[in-house]
Amino acid sequence: MFQRLRLCSRQGFMSLAWVCLASLPAFADDWPAWRGVEGNNHSAAGAEAPLKWNLQSGDNIAWKTPIPGRGHSTPVVVDDGIFLTTAQADAQTQSLIKFDRQSGRMIDQWVLHRGTLPANIHGNNSYASPTPAFDGEHLFVSFHTNDAIWLTKITTSGRVVWQNRVAAFEPKLFQFGYGASPIVENGLVIVAAEYDGPDSGLYALDARTGKPVWKVARPSNLNFASPIAATIVGQRQILLAGAEMFASYDPNTGKVIWSVDSTTEAICGTAVWDGRRVMVSGGNPASGTWCISGDGSNTELWSNRVKCYEQSLLAITNYVFAIADNGVAYCWRTEDGKEMWKERLFGGGISSSPTLVGDHLYIATEAGQVFVIKASPNRFEPIAENPTGDSIFATPVPVDGRLYLRTGVGAGANRQEYLVAVGRVSPN
């Protein structure tokens, strides 16, 4: 079910790999999964990223590499490589691609599924939307394919260790595709497969063997949210919102820690947290942002009607930032939901989630703009507006003193995706 695409001869590849390894700098940090090391979309302490650049002029652009096919997954940056998934509809393939971390050169492409793409997806979705997860040695890659969710364990050199069917995934009412990213937690790979069918659930597989460990049944309801692991009031929890509830699960057993009847039916964003409080936003059919006590008291603390449908929120200590579907940026106090400020950034259209680097927020829009604003609760303070192609759906990744961006240039049949490194030519 998987096939390796050879981009060069074995001898040539080995020689080139040796050159790359010999010149590879010491990387300061990685980005191993959706929303980074801590699952909160914060860069590592002390990390930096450029504030201004221009893709068209090449100003402050280290490199730009074409990506075959299309996808919305965020790059994963680990060891010597940058990894992302893609799908090529004409060839009916779903693949994992590896790029050289220093030069951006595409090293290899491994086809994991062929001829089994879903018959229908939403026009704003892709066949490669989930972001891979890395456990320090292997990548775990999920795809919606062959009417199911499939998970593949693969090495950073492209050797498939195992490939297992997690659950059926055959939505009937809304055939919009899939988007939830897997996470690795304490030797388990946790995958959400929520749809209007009998297999709807949250699944945990043994990372070593791929065998099922536990399953939590979820309501028969199409939902797109990714699970996320967080430590709240000293307890490790898996957070997941949607199906008109906000729930917390024990990572080792799947047992419900707490559940609150709140939110709405379909959630795309990933939950965020601040101390004892957890927050999420969504918009189908009801639009809103909700804050729940994460200490097990089963209490909704506050809510409002601001809609962040596909994009996640971003929390810092005592405050949470939101970029609404209509292009308005907000800051609320997490204690009581008090609005600290709001300001229009752009005309609307956003799928990418805001990323925190130091004291700056990076916000990418569907029109290809990346805004930089101060992550300040006191006032709205814009820093820069950077043209970066014509369309962005994936979330920016800040490592190596760079910002790695997946962007599209052109539209329709002429749209070409690129992986772009914003920043210095040689990371260190």
TrEMBL record:
Keyword Signal: yes
Domain Pyrrolo-quinoline quinone repeat residues, every copy: 132-342
A Pfam family hit: PQQ_2
UniProtKB keywords: Signal
Cytoplasm as UniProt keyword: no
Top-level taxon of the source organism: Bacteria
Signal peptide start and end residues: 1-28
PANTHER family assigned: CELL SURFACE PROTEIN (PTHR34512), OUTER MEMBRANE PROTEIN ASSEMBLY FACTOR BAMB (PTHR34512:SF30)
Protein name: Outer membrane biogenesis protein BamB
Species in which this protein is naturally found: Rubripirellula tenax
Lineage: Bacteria, Pseudomonadati, Planctomycetota, Planctomycetia, Pirellulales
